[in-house]
Fold these 3 entries.
Entry 1:
Amino acid sequence: MNLIFLGPNGAGKGTQARLLQQRQGIPQISTGDMLRTAIAKSSELGKEAERYVTAGDLVPDAVMIGIIAERLQQPDVQSGFVLDGFPRTIAQAEALEAVLAGLNRRLDRLIYFEVSEGTLVRRLSGRMVCRAAGHIYNDHSSPPKTPGICDMDGSEVYHREDDRPDKIRRRLQVYHDKTEPLLAFYRQRGLLSVLNAEADVEDIYRSLMTMLAPQVRR
């Protein structure tokens, strides 16, 4: 099953994509994780992307489309995938359609994670990530067992500069301006489903499974 999870940062789409990968075996393709890895490694892509990420802007389409096109050709995603964080613009969505057509594949569903701005700011301002691999924690809901230390790899856990409240609101404005038009784009194609993402993680997952049934096993 080929899926897109769409929603602003903090909506919970990354968490649900990881659960779907762990429990259903559908690989998560997270452009955010890919970019953070490139930035940490100071690759050419990372250096270019860092300027945009730090400012709270979108990474240029050409960079993102190239990353996705390459990833969709890997063996582990041939039976299905969840795109998490892509596309973010109409141009990217059109480019994705072309990439999938070239691979003789099609998109099955876009799930939109609907959540209020107040909830997003609260979630993101408490978010922390580890320096080694980007594992995500939250001051309020899921802190690391040892303060400041990642449970998974022992690296430092920190608050990202772009998770300050002022940067969060700037990102949300960029999202409203450039990404929300995708809802109409995919609605016209009969692929849009809306998921209430205000609940806790397990309740959202159960709603997601109901939405996707019978395409995936329960």
Note: The radius of gyration is 17 Å.
Entry 2:
Amino acid sequence: MQEHHLPVSRTARYFTLGSPEHARDVWIVCHGYGKLAARFLERFLPLEDEYRYIVAPEGLSRFYATESPAERRVGASWMTREDRLHEIEDYVRYLDAVYKQVLPPGATITALGFSQGAATVCRWVAMGASRVDRLIVWGGEIPPDLDLTRGSAAERLRIARLMLVYGTRDEFFTPKIVAATESRLREHGIAYELVSFEGGHEIHEPTLKKLT
């Protein structure tokens, strides 16, 4: 048995809030595992503004997220452990394409990733061709496989204004993981801001508003 790979084109989708016409502040927000972009974008309705444009790309792999035949809820994923390197390459190119499609001239760019989307935006900023002014890692960690010792990955994270956001009762991004992430960033000389809130694994509206 031999494994083969063949690049193909496919249709991806993204959702937006606001208009790019007068946008000075663009947010590209990536959802967590098993979510859909439209539902995730609803969390950002409180940030709607004449000069803000919010873009939510959807993970390229959709699946039925529930076993119940009656409900059949659909979710999306950015990647799995199966053939992971090619999936990473695919979504980095995809997010670069979204960036080129939506970017208004002169706008400030914020990339926010929640949960699985946190690792997604980190890899995109580190490995992609897009310029990001601020990187918000919410309820997730800097991917352990991302090499911060040398090369462009670490440098791009240093250039972006990096923020770690977490809930004090988050059952996934626990205080232990937060501490390990901070230690790793300090070890490699990557500056960051730490923002916490009383809550769990969620987009916390009052905290979100403080980040605008």
Note: The chain has one domain: 14-210.
Entry 3:
Amino acid sequence: MRFQRVSHLAFWLGLPIALFAAHGVHAQGLHDESTAYPTVTDERLQHPGAGDWLMYRRTYDGSGFSPLRQITASNIGKLSLAWSLNTDMVEAHETTPIVNHGRVFITTPGNNVIALDAKTGTQLWRYVKKYPEGLFQLHPTNQWSVRRA
């Protein structure tokens, strides 16, 4: 019997992002249509906005701590899922989503990149990596790196 796996990213995207988007909570650093989309700079990587998650574990010290305060012990039971995403990819999703100014960027197996609106989960764009004919990955998890110039 063949089992089809469906990848839902609500867990991977970080429950707080999805949850406070569902309740219309506005936090510093989340998308605001009236301002320009900010470039990721060394300064922003060193001091990310409260609503941004610009790298693995959020900061260079790897704390993984979010300074957002909208989700508390008193309201956690009232939260519900805002949205989820099926990437149509059946292999492991293993990288950290990046959040910049209300946009979420995820990678998938096969080295695809998907940009989403953090509030709605709406796909903004998707890059699909084209591989040469006959080339395949032995372990097709999502793996990517960024090189500095």
Note: Residues 1-149 form one domain.
